[in-house]
Amino acid sequence: MQYLYKDHNMPSKRPSKKMQAEVKEPLQMVEEAKEPPQTAEEAKEPPQTVEEVMLEGRPPSPISTDPKPNPKRKRSATETPKRKKKREQPYGKRPLNGYMFYFRERAKDDGMKALKVTELARKIAVAWQELSQEEKQPYLKMASDAKSEYMARVEMIKQQQQHQQEQEQVTA
Question: pTM to 2 decimals?
């Protein structure tokens, strides 16, 4: 199999414009073929260049010899993951919605404690979808109460911040 494009290890039926600009002469398999190995060590030694690998008829190794690390590569098990900084929540946690109130109540049931989290979530989600609007109403009311408390707290904090800024402007 001949490779017609520089730095590409797979032939393309329809090359891009960038690849067309990189066209090089077809490989001459007869001219560039290696001489047969003369010693046992040479016979065991793997080919070093991409051209040599291509002449052998097998794809090159996926391991890159580039000194630059690939930014999209996955971390190994020994590397520690980068942790995101926690975003500051000046107004506290957001209020729960009706479904979350229902979920918390149902998760505490005896039959649900033995289930795995994924099974538990699946069963509760199906049960929530099957509830009528009247059955959902108490949970939706709890959610609206929690939201109104949250909005009151947000408004109070905004007023405190505004008052504090006014005090700083007066002293400055």
Answer: 0.48
